[in-house]
């Protein structure tokens, strides 16, 4: 019994589809906010965003990114797989690198006497326990799935076909720069940008090394958990 092979195997089509899905990721969050602003009163919209903002913003992106990944696997390429191939050692080293970046960023912030990011200090403001738990679920589960598909798959969709280390490195660096830069809409410190860039490089390297998305998603969740815990203090 034979299985159907993806028919869109031209590199140009794969790159275009990847960029299209990345644009869909960017647009879906802005579009959901725009729609809600036009169908709800200002007070109701503000209350919804205050209590359930992460769920409102991420739900459309989650559906679209998963649909895009299904389409990619169905029509474009069997690579990457979700799980990929990684060992416990890869996971341990990944966590070590994530914590190293966090530790360096924290040490420099203390040395420079920098104020915490306003976005993080207000993360739990005005939220009930249920709303905080929903936010945590979205940040720890939904966001890693969405952003790893967007940044570590669709934005660098051809990385599994790169035989040249230089080309692979370029894709990883480009993705990390986009990852850090787009997050600066909610952050302001240069050290935060550098930390995000460092994390983006780690996630990109493990995406390429494991030829899968699961380990980057798990490491992303670790990074997010550091932020959630830190915002409590």
What does this structure look like?
The protein is globular, with a radius of gyration of 19 Å. With 233 residues, the chain is mainly alpha-helical. It has one domain.
Query: What is the residue-averaged pLDDT?
Result: 91
Number of strands: 0
Number of domains: 1
| Residues in helices, as a percent range | over 70%
**Rg, alpha carbons:** 19 Å
Distance between the termini: 58 Å
Our count of helices gives 8
Given helix and strand content, the structural type is mainly alpha
Largest sheet properties: none
Give start-end ranges of low-pLDDT stretches.
Answer: none
**Estimated share of beta-strand residues:** under 5%
Order of helices and strands: HHHHHHHH
The rough form would be described as: globular
Topology:
Elements: H1 11-39, H2 42-76, H3 88-111, H4 118-121, H5 129-152, H6 165-183, H7 190-210, H8 214-230
Helix pairs in contact: 1-2, 2-5, 3-7, 3-8, 5-8, 6-7, 7-8
């Amino acid at each position: 019994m034979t299985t159907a092979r993806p028919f869109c195997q031209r590199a140009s089509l794969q790159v275009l589809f990847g960029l299209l899905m990345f644009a869909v990721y960017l647009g879906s969050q802005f579009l959901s906010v725009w729609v809600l602003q036009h169908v709800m009163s200002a007070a109701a919209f503000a209350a919804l965003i205050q209590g359930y903002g992460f769920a409102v913003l991420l739900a459309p992106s989650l559906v679209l990114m998963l649909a895009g990944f299904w389409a990619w696997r169905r029509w474009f390429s069997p690579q990457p797989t979700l799980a990929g191939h990684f060992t416990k050692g890869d996971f341990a080293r990944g966590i070590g690198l994530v914590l190293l970046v966090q530790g360096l960023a924290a040490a420099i912030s203390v040395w420079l006497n920098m104020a915490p990011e306003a976005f993080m200090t207000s993360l739990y403001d005005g939220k009930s326990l249920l709303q905080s738990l929903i936010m945590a679920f979205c940040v720890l589960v939904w966001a890693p799935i969405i952003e790893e598909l967007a940044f570590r798959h669709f934005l660098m969709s051809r990385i599994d076909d790169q035989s040249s280390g230089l080309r692979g490195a370029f894709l990883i660096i480009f993705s990390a720069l986009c990852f850090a830069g787009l997050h600066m809409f909610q952050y302001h410190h240069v050290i935060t940008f550098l930390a995000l860039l460092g994390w983006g490089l780690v996630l990109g390297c493990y995406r390429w090394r494991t030829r899968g998305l699961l380990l980057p998603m798990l490491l992303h969740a670790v990074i997010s958990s550091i932020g959630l815990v830190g915002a409590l203090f």
